[in-house]
Design goal:
It is an enzyme of class 3 (hydrolase). Keywords: Hydrolase, Metal-binding, Zinc. It catalyses: guanine + H2O + H(+) = xanthine + NH4(+). The chain is an alpha/beta fold and about 425 residues long. The chain has two domains: about 120 residues, Urease, subunit C, domain 1 (Roll), CATH 2.30.40.10; about 300 residues, Metal-dependent hydrolases (TIM Barrel, Alpha-Beta Barrel). It is built from 15 helices and 16 strands. Strands 5, 6, 7, 8, 9, 10, 11, 12 and 13 form a nine-stranded parallel sheet that branches. It has a seven-stranded mixed sheet with strand order 3-2-1-4-14-15-16. The longest helix is centred in the N-terminal third of the chain and has 17 residues. The structure holds zinc ion. The site of zinc ion has 6 residues, from strand 5.
Length: about 425
């Protein structure tokens, strides 16, 4: 099965150094993208690609829209679709009042399956083709999450949360059951379809030292797996972790002591890192995952994205929605808030950088850039079609837009799911078939 998409193609080669850094991306104003069996087979000027396409190719003309790699969300919580928009003073109140009670419901398979259907519908509606998710503590939630990913053939990363203290009884495992059930999830789902299982201790507050030891054992046994957890989100949280692990130098050192600080480690938030922690993250190649709408919503703080990226020892960075602490499923809305956070810090996040982070940057942070995040030949055809005139107000503004960067900035500043004209997963249009 061969498809030829026509439109304006944009794909990044590396992180842009400024608005005039045209070597950092490829742009075809009348481009052709040839897809064979879900893989990008050729990319270039439309006329060139058309000439080499088979005679029976199915053509889809997406002009005047942009065609980009599918968006990647590096951190969100699958069981929190009904937690989003909860009124709380801060992280710890939000967890105890809304989040933990809601996650208890995921022990029921029927509930987990129903939410999984909605979860993937929202990802596709918002142009997110890969996401890195926390399930609940229950294996049922991971089963629902991965089976729905397989049904839709999406490349997803997820993990059964491990947590054995400081939460309601219905959300606690033990060092033994957390270890055993994570192994079962790996056996059942890792490498099936396009699934990746991540080792997922929720954070240091909800895991005892004994459970952290079990997590360390999993990390040793499965060195290729991603590890995801939370780090340095909120000052009360940081203080509490220090009391729980008095032997550690700081919060980052807690994870380092259990062998959880490495190049496949994804740390949600990491807002308030000390210089020592940033050095340790950099040396380990660990990833700090910026969740702007969540950080603003919970009043957690301003993530120093630009400062971390330009350090002598730079910290690898990903970007994410953090549903349900985050307030939008849209990566466009997310980068709009990321931009504003840098403004408050006296920094500039240019639109080319934003789109790099949502696509190739997150794929690099996941060590998956050979598969997703670009329009390179041989990679998987997960794509979005972006319409910069999706609303009357955007159409009016587009009348005065003169450059690609201005168009991208308009899409980021005013766009949401309405700007995603189509979402392709492995070469198949998925948004237009949503109910
Ligand atoms: Zn989170």
């Amino acid at each position: 099965m061969t498809t030829l998409l026509r439109g304006r193609l944009l794909s990044f080669k590396r992180a842009p150094q400024g608005l005039d850094d045209t070597d950092s991306y490829t742009y075809e104003s009348d481009g052709g993208l040839l897809i064979e069996n879900g893989i990008i087979a050729a990319i270039g000027p439309y006329a060139t690609i058309k000439a080499q396409a088979p005679g029976d190719v199915t053509e889809v003309d997406h002009r005047p829209h942009l065609i980009l790699p599918g968006l990647i969300d590096m951190h969100l919580h699958f069981p929190q679709m009904q937690v989003i928009a909860s009124y709380a003073a801060n992280l710890l109140e939000w967890l105890n009042t809304y989040t933990f009670p809601e996650e208890c419901r995921f022990v029921e398979s029927a509930h987990a399956e129903r939410i999984a259907t909605h979860f993937y519908n929202e990802l596709i509606r918002h142009g997110t083709t890969t996401a890195v998710a926390y399930c609940s503590v229950h294996k049922t939630s991971a089963d629902a999450f991965f089976s729905e990913a397989m049904r839709r053939n999406m490349r997803m990363v997820g993990g059964k949360v491990m947590m054995d203290r400081h939460a309601p009884q219905g959300l606690l495992d033990t060092p033994e059951t957390g270890y055993d059930e994570t192994r079962e999830v790996i056996a059942d789902w890792h490498g099936k379809g396009r699934n990746h299982v991540a080792i997922t201790p929720r954070f240091a507050i909800t895991s005892t030292p004994a459970q952290m030891e079990a997590t360390a054992a999993l990390a040793r046994e499965f060195p290729d797996l991603h590890i995801q957890t939370h780090l340095s989100e909120n000052h009360d949280e940081i203080k509490f972790t220090g009391e729980l692990y008095p032997e550690a130098i700081d919060y980052t050192d807690i994870y380092a002591r259990y062998g959880l600080l490495g190049p496949k480690s994804l740390f949600g938030h990491a807002i308030h890192l000390s210089e020592r922690e940033a050095d340790a993250m950099s040396e380990a190649g660990a990833v700090a995952v910026h969740c702007p709408t969540s950080n603003l919503f919970l009043g957690s703080g301003l993530f120093p994205l630009k400062a971390l990226a330009r350090r002598e020892k730079p910290v690898r960075i990903g970007v994410a929605t953090d549903i349900g602490g985050g307030s939008s499923y849209s990566m466009l809305r997310t980068m709009d808030e990321a931009y504003k956070i840098q403004q408050l810090l006296g920094e500039r996040l240019n639109p080319l950088e934003s789109y790099y982070y949502m696509t190739r940057g997150n794929a690099e942070a996941l060590s998956l850039v050979d598969k997703i995040g670009t329009l390179d030949t041989g990679t998987e055809a997960d794509l979005i079609i972006l319409n910069a005139a999706a609303t009357p107000a955007m159409t009016l503004k587009m009348e005065v837009v003169k450059s690609l960067a201005e168009e991208l900035f308009l899409l980021q500043t005013m766009g949401d799911d309405r700007a995603i004209a189509e979402t392709y997963v492995a070469g198949k249009p998925m948004k237009s078939i949503l109910q």
